[in-house]
Specification:
By secondary structure, the protein is an alpha+beta fold. The chain has helices at 26-39, 89-98, 114-119, 157-163, 195-208, 239-263, 268-278, 288-291, 312-325, 368-380, 395-401, 405-415, 424-430, 435-439; strands at 6-7, 14-15, 19-21, 43-46, 61-64, 71-75, 80-84, 101-102, 136-142, 148-152, 172-179, 181-182, 185-194, 211-216, 222-231, 282-287, 300-308, 334-339, 354-362, 384-385. Strands 16-13-15-14-18-19-17-20 form an eight-stranded antiparallel β-sheet, sandwiched between helices. The chain has a five-stranded antiparallel β-sheet with strand order 6-7-11-9-10. A three-stranded parallel β-sheet has the order 3-5-4, covered by helices on one side. The structure holds flavin-adenine dinucleotide.
Length: 444
């Protein structure tokens, strides 16, 4: 038994689980699910705790798969690998590279667990790539009844489409089979352009580059664009330059100016302009898994919305107007990315090629007014929130956004009939206040 405090990465969520369990095998997972079921407990699995919402929090039983990491089996012919679900993305990249394989795309950090990343629809950028869940071809899951279930699109399409983004509500995912690429190298280029030029050109740049994203610093004229493309050039380490740019400028210096903004919020406008002028520019070549991830040492809170791809410019224009209307005291950049549409039931990119716009606020600075104002704009353009990031929506609105919502709930009932994987937060998202009563719901 434990009563120690658990907190997510940004510190926005705290919980005091009654038990924390660290299973080391599928058998252990089966036993703990059976135990929770018998004792009427509710449990949540936590990956790396990098979601900004209470989506992984538990006041009852918290389960971590940190002891279930690594490769289970690699098939270099079919370019697939079965991996333990607790594997952190950084370790996964290194292990796959040893077999000449790599993930086709990743987000901008690599500390999440693979199961945590796919459970919220974590994505990177690139118009031809879906989110990380689209890389999955098979699951091994311990369901709410303690059954070990293998699931692929071929064995059960409905369950598979529900599992690909499942918010930890269909069972404990213990193994994941991934579709992979032969290991590849990328050339990364960071440039500064004006926001106006960026808005004029960004749709073409997104088409022309394997990966494209831009960072817009509110109140500043310049913005940063980042591209990554395949190359055969030799990978090169620049330890001193990387340390200066990635640790000293992007983290230490940015941490200092963020503290200044927290203490004197009126400086945010100047700091945003200063940060835009200090963005490290240049070119790097490395193996893909080394280039996607950046270090994030300055803690913040974040909201991110998925939007129809063609809405990017209109939304940015509206955000720009709103930011000039009221002093929101923002010094963090707005991160703008693209992803390919998919057919995963609860994926924010369901049925549409997508733009993603993310807004941030330094930890300790009030974020509600800024986030609420921007969320109103996102919603006017058909936005769907990222499941791991802050938003204010509940079941009634979410249900409207997802055509397969009810089908997902039916699969959830089949796999977790007692609602043991629900916490209060997820219950609200799904419109369930009493999991026990919900267990008796008629399934049509
Ligand atoms: C600094 C930072 C940068 C980020 N960058 C990006 C980015 O570039 N792109 C992006 O899309 N998102 C990004 N995110 C969000 C992040 O990728 C997601 O919130 C992700 O879900 C976190 O993974 P995690 O392993 O920490 O999972 P957690 O936050 O611990 O859990 C997330 C969900 O996964 C479930 N889960 C975890 N393991 C299992 C399992 N074995 N079985 C069933 N369910 C499970 C949990 O119950 C929970 O519902 C970022 C977050 C931070 C803090």
């Amino acid at each position: 038994m434990t009563q120690s405090m658990w907190s997510n990465w940004s510190g926005s969520v705290q919980a005091r689980p009654q038990i924390v369990l660290n299973p080391a095998s599928i058998d252990d997972v089966v036993k703990l699910v059976q135990m929770c079921r018998q004792e009427g407990r509710r449990l949540r699995v936590v990956g790396s705790g990098h979601s900004f919402t209470p989506i992984a929090a538990s006041e009852d039983c918290l389960v971590s798969l940190d002891h279930m990491q690594g490769l289970v089996h690699v098939d270099t012919q079919s370019r697939t690998a079965k991996v333990w679900a607790g594997t952190k993305l950084k370790l996964l990249g290194e292990l796959l590279f040893q077999h000449g394989l790599a993930q086709e795309n990743l987000g901008d950090i690599d500390v999440q667990s693979i199961a945590g990343a796919i459970s919220t629809g974590t994505h990177g950028t690139g118009r031809t790539f879906g989110n990380i869940s689209t890389q999955v071809v098979g699951f091994t899951v311990v369901t709410g009844t303690g059954e070990v279930m293998e699931c692929t699109a071929e064995s059960d399409l409905k369950r598979f489409k529900a599992l690909q983004v499942s918010l930890g509500t269909l069972g404990i995912i213990v193994q994941i089979t991934l579709r992979l690429e032969p290991a590849y190298r990328l050339e990364y280029v960071s440039r500064r352009v004006t926001l106006d030029e960026c808005l004029q050109q960004q749709a073409q740049w997104a088409e022309a580059n394997r990966h494209f994203e831009f960072y817009w610093f509110p109140y500043a004229l310049p913005c940063q664009i980042k591209t990554m493309n395949l190359t055969q050039d030799e990978p090169k380490d620049h330890p001193v330059k990387d340390y200066i740019n990635e640790v000293l400028v992007e983290n230490t210096l940015f941490g200092w100016v963020s503290e200044l903004c927290r203490k004197v919020p009126q400086t945010s406008t100047l700091v945003s302009r200063f940060s835009a002028s200090q963005v490290p520019l240049g070119r790097k070549v490395h193996h893909s898994h080394k280039l996607f991830a950046t270090q994030r040492l300055v803690r913040f809170n974040e909201m991110e919305y998925n939007l129809p791809a063609e809405a990017m410019n209109a939304v940015i224009e509206e955000m720009r107007i709103e930011l000039s209307r009221k002093p929101y005291r923002v010094h963090f950049p707005v991160e703008c990315r693209y992803a390919k549409g998919d057919d995963i039931w609860l994926s924010p990119a369901y049925g549409r090629d997508s733009a993603y716009i993310a807004i941030h606020m330094y930890r300790g600075m009030p974020h509600a007014e800024y986030f609420n104002a921007m969320e109103r704009i996102f919603l006017r353009y058909g936005g769907r929130p990222h499941w791991g990031k802050m938003h204010s929506l509940e079941a009634a609105q979410l249900q409207e956004m997802y055509p397969m919502w009810e089908s997902f709930q039916q699969v959830r009932h089949e796999l977790d009939p007692d609602g043991i994987f629900l916490n209060d937060y997820v219950g609200k998202l799904f419109g369930i206040t009493n999991p026990r009563a919900d267990a008796n719901r008629e399934i049509v």
